[in-house]
Predict the 3D structure of the following.
Amino acid sequence: MTDYGLFLFAMGLLALGFRRPFVWVLAYCYVDILAPQQISWHLLAQLPLSLIVFVAAFGGWLAFDAKRDSRFTYRQALLCVLLVYCGCTTLTADFPAEALTKWAWVWKALVFAIFLPLTLRTRLRIEAVVLVMVLSAGAIIISAGIKTALGGGGYGYLALLVDSNTGLYEGSTLAMAAIAIIPMTFWLARHGTIFPRHWTVTLFALALTFACLLIPVGTEARTGLICIGVLAVLALRTARRRFLYMSLMAIGAFAAVPFLPQSYTSRLSTIENHQADESASTRLAVWAWTWEYAKDHPMGGGFEAYRSNKVRYQKKTTTEVSDDDTEIVSSYVVDAGRAYHSAYFEMLGEQGYPGLALWLWLQLAGLWQMERIRWKWKKRTGPDEQWQAPLANALQLAQVVYLVGAAFIGVAYQPFILMLIGLQCGLWSYLKRIDAQRIDGAARRIGGVRALSATSAPVPAPAPEAIGA
Amino acid sequence: MIDLFALALTHGLLALAALRLVMRADLDRDPGESEEAPPRRGMRPPGD
């Protein structure tokens, strides 16, 4: 039944694309995030669905969509340079075969992030992409959230829709993405027009947020908890009743602790005592190795370069001998081919200093652009000028959550986040265009008024702020 | 069962959203925007 349902849905989306080709772009977002062909075991599994929607999205835009409002922003140019650079390092990679496997999905994610902003010509299209991102990720999150609430969580045990450990189906990545979509969900509930403001929409947004908050518990991903903390602090910036917000957060946090499973609280305690935790100690050792590796390979070792690492680290285990005595045993562990466990070190090891610099530039420019939009639009009072600053804020918060989570997970080329970057580029370029058109329109109106006043009765000149408003 | 519920709920909403989108004219053109390309900044409008 699931199989037929997913098949019919996918075919329905493709059919709607013939009426409005932009639906194919949304279909690509949906397929890329949820991977329905992996959930299905019969009908969709036999179709090259990813390829079909990729071709349909590009072909539809090329053949049918208007191009006059499409702009190429400098962050898209940065993505292009990063794409070419990654291609070059793949050709000279330490592990050519493994590098090619990663390149096979990285280039697609980068190309789509470059392409997406070209299609985001209207406000509704921007909103539609946000909605599809939230609902597609929501499918994984709602299922995982309910399972967690019913006690089915545990590190490596939480059964997601697909048992594959790729994309959003990897526990820590899902925890990070779940927290990142919270601000986007609230923006949709407040400013959405596809599903306009209504108590059912608010209820859904609240329930989805609750499910999102349960993901770090269900997957026992410590990264997710750090992401929640960061988001909670950053949300203070725009909260209207800060004291009430802080009080509710504190009460919520204290009330949640007794309900957390013991395995989760004991895993969280290793954040402070990282020497007793093998996963955290490995990370520190791999990061030190990558730092040294980059000195010898400043241009990067290509995808999967971590495979050559061999790390040795100290591990301390504490055992209780009696009621009063504890014994601390120190031992050395040798490990090989450990993954980076950090997007920053992933970029440094695989793409060297230039790749890391490009990636950081791309990320920091996004934060800056969203801040610019926020400042520029938040003081405007027009009825159609209220959604821009909150959306920029939501996309900025999502990116900050990602950048914090990325310090502990190797998600430098996460397609979901690259889609978010594409969305930021689209919003930036769209607002810049409509602002320029408004200024042009105001200037033309003033020109018309002046021309009229020269031929007829004197008309008072409009206020100069009308042009710059 | 839980998976089925999550998939049915989100796909139902996605399908409804897609149907609403294809019926809205502002998907391809913002309200108030003309079909003709607006003149680029610094260019004189025709007839000047």
